[in-house]
Amino acid sequence: MARINLLPWREKQRKQKQVQFFAILAFMVILTGVGVVGVHFFQQDRISYQNERIAYINKKIRYLDDKILRIKMIDQTRQNLEKRIQKVRDLESNRAEVVHLFHEISERLPKGVFLTAISQSNKKIILQGIAQDNNDISSYIHNLEDSNWLDHLGLDIIQNRSARNSQDNSSGKNIFTLTAKQTQPDKKNKANVKVTKK
After folding, report:
1. Range with the lowest mean pLDDT among 8-17, 103-112, 146-155, 183-192?
2. For residue 126, is it within any domain?
3. Domain span at 152
4. Which of 175, 157, 172, 160 is nearest to 116 (CA)?
5. Is 103 part of a structural domain of the chain?
6. What is the pLDDT of residue 59?
7. Which candidate among 92, 110, 129, 170 keeps its CA 20 to 30 Å from the CA of 101?
8. Is 132 a member of any domain?
9. Cβ(170)–Cβ(118) under 8 Å?
10. Strand-strand pairing, 113-121 and 124-131
């Protein structure tokens, strides 16, 4: 029986397998490297894109912040102008009120009553004067109560000057101080209507 030596063939087959293994291993290493590099470049591209978007959004935010600041400044300017316009309107309306008020105060003076001073602080009015007697003061108060331009009348002080020096012009007369609140006819009429309804 013939003997066949298979050792060289096996050795050759082993070497071929080793070559194939190292070739596959090298291919896998190269493929993995290419994949890693590809993923790295992809991630870098995504990061660059996101950074560009963030920069764009920040730019828009700064632009909108400037717009909001301008809008606030414009709104503040508008409010200031509205306040000034309202003050001008109030002054124009008060100009006529002062005329009506002084007309009411002087028109309703009874005989024997003389005003010596008139002062006003906001809506509060103080009237100082001289009267022949208390009845004249009472009559003046009743006359002013009928006025649509005055409200909350009060008599603060009455002094009799009979004991004064005869050289004083007010000797024998009563000095009085009245307080009142300036109002507008339409507001007073509305208040009277509400009181009447009750």
Report:
1. 183-192
2. yes
3. 108-197
4. 175
5. no
6. 93
7. 170
8. yes
9. no
10. antiparallel
- Give the angle subtended at the CA of 34 by the CAs of 42 and 45, to the nearest 5°: 10
Q: What is the pLDDT of residues 16-67, one digit of tens each?
A: 888 888 899 999 999 999 999 999 999 999 999 999 999 999 999 999 999 9
Which residues, other chains included, contact 181 with Cβ-Cβ below 8 Å and sequence gap of 6+?
123, 124, 125, 150, 151, 152
Percent of the chain with pLDDT over 70: 81
Band of pLDDT at residue 174, cut at 50, 70 and 90? confident
Count of C-beta atoms within a 10 Å radius of residue 105: 21
153 alpha-carbon distance from chain centroid:
36
CA distance 197 to 139: 28
Provide the CATH number for the domain around residue 170: 3.30.1360.100
For residue 181, being part of any structural domain is answered with yes
Which residues have C-beta within 8 Å of that of residue 133, sequence separation ≥ 6? 112, 174
Q: Tokens in use for 38?
A: 């590809």
